[in-house]
Amino acid sequence: MKRLGIHLKRRLFPLLLIFTIFLTACSGGENPKDHLGEIYTIALDALMEEDKALNSDMTFIAIDMSHLDGVDEKQKKAIIRHFEDQYKVEVMDATMDELEEKGYYNPDTNALEGLLLQIEKVDFTFNDHVLIEGSKFKSGIGAVGLRIEVEYEDGEWQLKKSELNWIS
User: Which long-range contacts (CB under 8 A, 24 or more apart) does 66-72 make?
Assistant: First the structure.
């Protein structure tokens, strides 16, 4: 009987080891929630690249960070700094309501003299893949919505795909 127990242990150990390696490999990858500032910057850059005509004559970029769950103040400042360096205009964290209150939105023309970037939906599909829906607004007849895929590949977060969802 004792001999049977040792024999059984010898056969189960390799199976247990293989099962453990398999579970570890399946749960690998980068946790996107640890890199939200970088992921949102990539998605917001994709919005800026779509319909560049909307970028003409912009005096500011407003990024609505009210829905960027998990992004701390340091990451928000890094995102703002990135856009200030990239586009050489004033960049602020503001919602449409805040832009209206500050006089940046003209209700007669239904337009901004700058742009409003918003992230509306985020879906963490896998550890190394994030789906994001966002929009860029200049006016009632000048806005776009995108579906953006960001993926962790070759040791960094990258834009995988950007598709136009809607246009006005």
Answer: 66/95, 67/118, 67/119, 67/120, 68/36, 68/40, 68/119, 69/122, 70/33, 70/36, 71/36, 71/37, 71/40
